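Anyone have tokens for Acireductone dioxygenase? Sequence:
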Amino acid sequence: MAIQAWLMDDCNEDPRLPHLGNTTQFVSLDQLAELGVLYWNLNPNDYENDPELKKIREARGYSYMDVLDLCPQKVENYEEKLKNFYTEHIHEDEEIRYCLEGSGYFDIRDKGDRWIRIWIKAGDLIILPAGIYHRFTLDMSNYVKLMRLFMGEPVWTAHNRPQEDNPARKEYIKGFTEKTRVPLAAH
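Reply: yep, here.
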């Protein structure tokens, strides 16, 4: 089953709500790929032995991984951490997340600076390119178990917006202006 994504409404209610709006505009996998977002649907029940995951990790150089259980019972300062995740930011490296259990939302900015909400569930692996403005929150389930993948040692430094002079952001924008962005085939 393909991931679901849509343009968010402008409502300031609880960020864990879907924010579909009155006239929902869904966003396709092709539209996400145009923004540099890659997606796979894998078997989360066999992630330790999954040959498809192994193939992705080898092809993209993801040598490090860890697993994060994000819920009020397992995370100290849960509300504060969730607020930090929901602050708009970029990273200087790709953000790779594989949902093993539960669900949550990654919000990314489109070319017109509108929010696109991506609902990830068990089996969804997404890659956000370096330099893309994004944020994360749980949905109303208040639980997600994510595998985080990295090239080499893990680096998770968020650079809050604005970051227009950040080299990663400049490179991301350059990919649109020069039309050189060719995403790895995903499904």
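Confidence is low (pLDDT under 50) at residues 180-187.
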